[in-house]
Amino acid sequence: MTRKPQVWLCVSPRRRETHETTPSGCPPPAGENTRVATLAAVELEILIDRDAIAERVDELAEEINRDYADVDELVLVGVLKGSFIFLSDLSRRVTVPHRVEFISVSSYGDGESEVPGAVRLIMDVRHDIGGQHVLIVEDIVDTGHTLSYLERLFAAREPASLKACALVRKPDRAEVDVAIDYVGFDIHDVWVVGYGLDFAERHRTLPDIRILPRS
Ligand code: IMP
Ligand code: MG
Hints:
Helices cover 20% and strands 32% of the residues. By secondary structure, it is α/β, with parallel strands linked by helices. It is globular, with a radius of gyration of 17 Å.
C-alpha cells in the first residue's frame, strides 16, 4: 500500500516552510534495533539543509546581539554533546562579549533510570555563573525535561539573567512547560540526526539535519 506523504512543518519566526516527506517517527531506544542505526547517511532524508541552518543561526545571533547589546559579558552554556556544532557556529556570530562553558547531562534511553524524564548531571560548568548573564544553548528540546532541569539548576545559582536557546524544538512532544527564548526550528515528532544530533552516537557530524526513519 502506498502511504501518502505527510507534510512536516519547519518553522522559523521569519520564514515558514512546509516540507514534503514520508511518514517517520522516533526510533526505538538505542540497542533495540541496529538496522536504523546502521543506515547510510545518504539514505536519510534531509529535513533542514545546511543553508537553512546557517541562515537561521545568523538570525538567532542577530537577535541575541540585539537583546544583549548592553551586557558586559554573556555566558553561553552548551549542553554536550548535541550542541557542540550549533554552539560553535552561533558563538562565532555572536558579537556581544561572551565566554563559553559546557555542561553535560544524561538523557533518557540510557537505561540508567526508572523515572521517566529523570535527568542526571554528568559534568558541571567549570566556572561559577552566579551574577552572570547566562544563555543555555541546546541542540533540541523534545519532552523539555532536560532544559527544565538545567533552568532549575542554574536559577538556583542566582545568575543576573537566564535564558535558553534551542536550535530545534518538537512542540508535539512537550511534557513540561519550559521557557525557550530563542528557537531555531519547530519540527514534528521525528527523530533527527546531523549538525550535532545523533542516534546512538551515529550521524552526529552530518552537515544537514536528516530524518532517521522508524524501521
Ligand atoms: P528532552 O529532555 O526530552 O527535551 O530531550 C532532550 C535531549 O534528548 C536532547 O538534548 C537530545 O540529546 C535528545 N533528543 C531528543 N530528540 C532528539 C532527536 O530527534 N535527535 C537527537 N537527539 C534527540
Ligand atoms: Mg541536547
